[in-house]
Design a protein that fits this description.
It is built from 13 helices and two strands. With 447 residues, the chain is mainly alpha-helical. It has one domain: Growth Hormone, Chain: A (Up-down Bundle). A two-stranded antiparallel ribbon has the order 1-2. Helix 6 packs antiparallel against helix 7 (211-231), helix 10 runs antiparallel to helix 11 and helix 11 packs antiparallel against helix 12. The longest helix has 35 residues, at 409-443. The chain is globular, with a radius of gyration of 21 Å. The relative contact order is 0.17.
Length: 447
């Protein structure tokens, strides 16, 4: 990774930029120094990420599938709705990156946030729609609008954070951001497990009906709204862009982007199978009550809070590339208990391990993929990576529901583990090629 004290050399090979040094800047020797060095713009992004973790990854993730189950839909319909969402995010990702390059990350994120909130607010209205066709139309409209907004926000948030901190502090920034999301997801999951009972008591509605879940989803929208106001105060300063980008290339690094697309697709295909259907598994196969599901899901966030801050320390020794690889392997291993023993203790262990490894891998990989391309290609790389990720999630959502119906949850979890190992093998091949190319370059005599 680029640092203030490192001498960086690079070359062009099919558009692939190969930096001389990967890892952390020696200028940041502790978390305290790194966090203290972040400015106002970075903290605005951290706060917004925290609100997103509490509402979307905490409350909305926990309750959306349970809401759909209470509406009377099965795993196949739930899978199709999730497939539609991910497929649309896939289609919107590259255009979202292009728009961010034109308008700037800030405007694209604000527009995306507004659309996402509108989309998330539409879904709970299905509780009050009696006609099945209109109800399904409302759910589809919700996915379309929120997918467009989500793509705009997600694709442009990582380049925004990369540009809001000094180049040598990016690993700390992404690890801190991941830790904030993990902490707020933990709190949001606990809150989400309690909200249906609360709104059920207020509305005098049974917990087996969809109404308490719909009100809970609306509560998440209201809580997230202030985050958009905070983004209005964010300014793009270009702090994360070196004064002279020595890696600027005349051609788009298509070969590198193509490899990252494969890695991210396989990763999210495997991860998404567990992510999309884990709460359904707890609800339908293990028959846990909603508060217990909230507690169990939130436990995973605790593991992420513990392990994500270790990423910069590990990356200092291994580099962000090998740290990412270790995270991928750990994700695959963590899914195995879910497949091998169908009870809640292994489910808790496997879910916690996979989520912690995912958080660590995601923080390291985001820095890795944004740092190995020229600054002007970061939005493009972010869009391509997000496109591949959501395409993998779409594939897992589409096939996952049918796999569960025909072969059961065990088959789904075994497939997820295999795909994660395949992603790790693809990423290892990329790292090996980069290392070989660097050694070959160093072996050529100067002059």
């Amino acid at each position: 990774m680029l640092t203030g004290s490192s001498v960086l050399t690079s070359r062009r090979r099919l558009g692939i930029i190969i930096p001389e040094v990967e890892g952390l800047s020696r200028d940041h020797t502790s978390w305290l120094q790194a966090v203290g060095g972040f400015d106002r713009n970075a903290y605005l992004l951290f706060i917004t990420a925290g609100l997103l973790g509490f509402t979307y990854w905490g409350i909305t993730y926990l309750l959306t599938n349970l809401f759909l189950l209470r509406l009377g839909y099965g795993t196949d319909v739930i899978g199709n709705l999730n497939f539609l969402f991910y497929l649309l995010v896939t289609a919107f990702s590259i255009p979202a990156g292009a728009l961010g390059m034109i308008t700037g990350s800030r405007r694209a994120m604000i527009l995306g946030g507004v659309l996402a909130l509108v989309g998330w607010a539409v879904a709970p209205a299905a509780s009050f729609i009696l006609a099945p066709s209109l109800r399904l139309a409302a759910l589809v409209a919700s996915r379309v609008i929120s997918a467009l907004g989500g793509a705009l926000f997600i694709v442009n948030s990582n380049p925004a954070l990369m540009g809001a901190v000094e180049p040598g502090a990016s690993t700390y920034a992404f690890a801190f951001n991941g830790t904030v999301i993990s902490l707020t997801t933990f709190l949001g999951s606990l809150c989400g497990g309690l909200l249906p009972n609360l709104f059920g008591a207020i509305a005098r509605s049974s917990i087996s009906s969809s109404l308490p879940y719909g009100f809970s989803l609306w509560a998440a929208v209201v809580i997230l709204a202030p985050g958009l106001v905070l983004l209005g105060f964010f300014r793009e300063t270009g702090k994360g862009m070196p004064k002279e980008d020595v890696r600027a290339a005349s051609r788009v690094p298509m070969a590198l982007i193509a490899v990252i697309i494969v890695v991210r697709f396989l990763r999210e295909y495997g991860y998404g199978g567990v992510l999309t259907f884990f709460n359904v598994y707890l609800d339908t196969a293990l028959r846990l009550p909603t508060p217990s599901i909230g507690v169990l899901v939130s436990i995973s966030a605790i593991a992420s809070i513990v392990f994500t801050p270790l990423m910069p320390i590990v990356a200092r020794r291994w580099g962000t590339g090998r740290t990412s690889l270790a995270g991928l392997l750990a994700m695959g291993i963590a899914v195995l208990p879910l497949a091998l023993v169908m009870s809640w203790p292994p489910a808790a262990i496997g879910w916690a391990g996979m989520t912690a490894a995912n958080s660590m891998n995601e923080a390291a990989m985001q820095v890795f993929i944004l740092d190995i391309v020229a600054t002007r290609y970061r939005a493009l790389m972010s869009g391509a990576a997000n496109m591949a990720s959501t395409l993998g999630l779409a594939a897992s959502a589409l096939g996952g529901g049918y796999i569960i119906r025909t072969a059961g949850f065990r088959a789904l979890f075994l497939l997820s583990a295999g795909l994660l190992f395949a992603s790790a093998a693809s990423f290892a091949a990329l790292l090996g090629l980069r290392r070989y190319t660097r050694k070959a370059r160093e072996a050529v005599p100067a002059g």
